[in-house]
Structures are given as structure tokens and as C-alpha cells.
Amino acid sequence: MAWWHSAVAYQIYPRSFADSNGDGVGDLKGILTHLDYLAMLGVDVVWLSPIYRSPMDDNGYDISDYDDIDPLFGTLADFDALVEGLHARGIRLVLDMVINHTSDVHPWFLESRKPGSPKRDWYYWRPARDGFEPGSEGAEPTNWGSFFAGRGWKFDPASGEYYLHLFSPRQPDLNWENPEVRAELYAMMRRWLDRGVDGFRFDVINLISKTLPLADGPAGPDGICYDPSVVAEGPRLHEFLKELNREVGIDERQLFTVGEMVLVNSADARAHTDPEAGELGMVFTFEHMMLDAGPSGLKWDIVPLRLPALKANLAHWQQELADVGWNSLYWENHDQPRSVSRFGDDSPEFRVASAKTLATTLHLLKGTPFVYQGEELGMTNAGLTGIEQYDDIESRNFYAGGLALGMDPAQLLGALAQRSRDNARTPVPWHGGAGAGFSTGTPWLPVNANHDQINAADAVADPGSVFHHYRKLIALRHDSALVREGRFELLLGEHPSLFCYLRSLDDQALLVVANWSSAPVPLPLDDLPSLVGARLILGTHDELSDTLAGWESRVYRLGW
């Protein structure tokens, strides 16, 4: 096993973690003031969302200089101090690496806009569709859409052609077919490793290979193709990832790597994370994050989550990557709403128990758990009520597009309140006072109104808090080979309220029983055939037969 197989990662979204200078935006010095908090939690790895120079069209995922820190976050000296401070506490640092696209003000792109430039081929420049006037409706080279809505091509009058942007028009896609592009990116990553970085989280990495020639995909009612399969898992992806691994020294340096992959399935994930393949350590899957989407498959089309569907999906991934590859485990990140509001019950009565139950269910699976900042406090969704409170480009585009279609503003705001990425991006509440201890200035996003009840200071002081529950789960993973390596078996797969599974290794087992409802549920012991002949090391048959209160989880250690 690699070192990161027993690790727990913690994602920091720098804008919202801690502000040291009162400008309302989190920064590196702010992170430095809370390193002991991270050490107390017990995490092994910090994943830092982008801190590079950027015009911040997409909050740093539009990079204009890969080799420097944006002044909003600090300096390279601050970064070096952060690396040193984390390493002194036994915590490794992973950078978010955005290499599918750059900012449109990156010097490479600015140079590429000149038709005769040697860097013209560093991006996807294409002429208008045959028979169409450049810049006219429908003249785009293909019908591809953007993940942020609208068309995926933008016309540049200065150069007379279109460039591809699968995200914002200010995020042009790099052309990985060009070996010079790849060589520059690899060299840049090696420079960060020389500064002490321990690995990378690769943003939308399975979009870097496009099928050539670029061609239309299946069109929707508006004539635009939003099918991600047209642009994901391209024909040279494995080749590019193997080359990246080799040139950057991923396996040689034993780096922590995880790839965000659009539309990835378990077969793809197994192929990418097979140690013999020499590609990535693990990937982020989206499948379990789409189970509460309606028939359209869009995140804004919201339907109630069916627990049996979630159990079946997570069990599938556990089984498919049991012997080859490795799972990443997560409920939250900077692109997802708060899990206790989404999958749990964030009412005052059940929020704490619900957050603990979600944590127990996830952290005792096989894989590397990821904790997103504030998740360990049981933070809820933001409670934003007006479009002027939102900053996220995806959310603003959704709202504007819905209004253009004549949709009810209240309905649009209701969808944003449940699914907007800004739900996870509100500032971390460090205490219950003014500014929540995040900033002495006006925060870039509003602080959650419930920060007087949900904050780090109170959680650390309360031994029964969600925070300390996460501490125990993280410590258990460090201490238990059974949690790290044991096999997985789903039990009671069709039960509408209980999430129950068995982990086993040699002659030991863990039975995890979680009530995912707000009502008491009896444990149907007679329906658990895997426990026949088991001998309880801790607990009794009567305890196993107990009724679980609403949003409660228990773990039993068994011996065969």
C-alpha cells in the first residue's frame, strides 16, 4: 500500500478559510494561523484550491501565471512558510492543478491570438463553419456547449477565428496535442515540487484529450450539445497521463494525486488508478452526486434521494476497485452543497447526529476520505435569499438563463439555495462573534447566519461535537488495518432507511449500521446472513437488536 492509502485529506478553499488582513478574502497567512487546528483534527494532507495569479473569473480556476501567487492570497514567501508549517506538523500539501485550460489573459493565450504566432496551436483555434459568416449565429466550428451554459466557442474578431472554452469564455482550452504545451506544463509542476509540494489534484483532467477532428455531438432543443461524453475520456488520455506521471515523477516521488474526471465510470477509474498503469493514485467520481438529479440529469433538476440507489452506487465502486485501483471518498467539496443539508437533516434536532452519521458511513468505507473545510463542523447550506448575494459564475448564469426562458425567479432561487456552489464557499466560522472570526472586514460572501451555533471554537470545546467525531474516525483509519484494507460487503441493500455494511480482514470484521432517517428504525438482525456464526467481540446480541434512534450510527467489532 502507498502512504496515502491510510491518509485523510482536507480541502481548503483559500478565499473562505481565514482572512489575515481584513480585506474580506481568505489568504495564506490566514491559513497559517490555523495549522494547529488541522493538526488537532488529525488530517494527513491539505489540498489547496488554486492560489495562482488569476483575474478570478472562476475564483482562481482561470490561471494567468502558474508560477506565482495571486496578491489576493499573499506571496511566494507566504507559500513557503505554509509548506514549512504543514510539514513541521506531519501534514503534506497538495496543489490544485488546472491544466485543461488557462485564463484568457495568460501570456500564452495572448500570444496565440496572433494568427501567425508559434503559439497559435497551443489552443484550439478554428475557422467558422463552412457557409457561415464568422461571428454569426450557428457559425461556431462545432455545436459543443460550455459546462457553464451557452456555447463552447467564442469568436475573436482580432484573429478572425473561434477558440474553444469548455468552461467560461475566459478559460480557453489548452491543446494537449501540442508537445510543447505538455512540456511547459510538466516543467511548471516540477518547479512546484522543488518548493516542497507533495502532490496534485488535477482539475477536469479527463478533458485534456479531444477526439480529432473536432465534430458535432448530439444536439439538444437549443441546438447545443451538452453531452459530456463527447469531450471526456479522449483517445490519447491514457497516453497523456502516463507521460505526465513519468515526466513529473509521480510514482518515482510517491506523490499524492487525484484526478477530477467528468462522467468517469468504474472501469475508467480502475484503468486510471491501477498501479501498473502508471497514471494517477485515485479519481473523483460524480455518479453518487447525480443521484438526486431528475430525468434531465442536470444538477438544478432536483428530486429526493433514494437511499437504496446511493447504497448500490457506493457498493458498486467499492467492489469494482476492491483489488485494482483505489477509491476517493467524499460528500463535499468546493463544487457541492453542504452534505448535512443535502443528504441529511440540518434541523436543530438532528443536525449533529445527522452529520456524524454521514461521516461514519463514509469514513469506514475503503478508500481515501476527503474532508471539505467546515464539513467537520456540520456546516449547513448558506441560506442565501437573493441573486445579488451569489458570486458563483455557474449560479449567476443559471439564474440569468432561467429568467430568459420565463421561469419563476422564486423557483430559480430555490434551486440555487439547494445546489449552488456558493453553499460550500461561505466563510469558515471560527467563533460565534462578529465576522465569525473569519475577517475583520466585509467577507466576500456572507457568513452563515447560524455561525453563532455552528463554529469551530464551540466544536473544539465540546467533546461530543461533530468535530471530535471526525477526529475519532480519522484516528481509527490510522490505527486499523481493517478500516484501511478490509473487504466490503453491503447488507440490507433495499432497506429504505438503514445503510448497513460489513468490512472484513482475516478473522476480524466491522459491522457499520447507520439510520439515515429522522425516525427510530429497528435493526432486522435475522436479515443479515453474513453475521450468522459471528462472535461479538464488543457488544451483545441484544445491543445489535436495538432500535436505532433517528440519524444514529453504530460500529460493532466482530470476530469470526
From TrEMBL:
Annotated Glycosyl hydrolase family 13 catalytic domain residues: 11-425
Entry annotated with the keyword Hydrolase:
yes
Protein's GO biological process: oligosaccharide catabolic process
What Pfam family is a match, any one? Alpha-amylase
Q: Which InterPro entries match?
A: GH, GH13_cat_dom, Glyco_hydro_b, O16G_dom_2
GO MF terms, alphabetically ordered:
alpha-amylase activity
Keywords for this protein: Glycosidase, Hydrolase
Q: Which NCBIfam families match?
A: PRK10933.1
Q: Which family does it belong to?
A: Belongs to the glycosyl hydrolase 13 family.
Protein name, UniProt field: Oligo-1,6-glucosidase
Specify the species. Answer: Propionicimonas paludicola
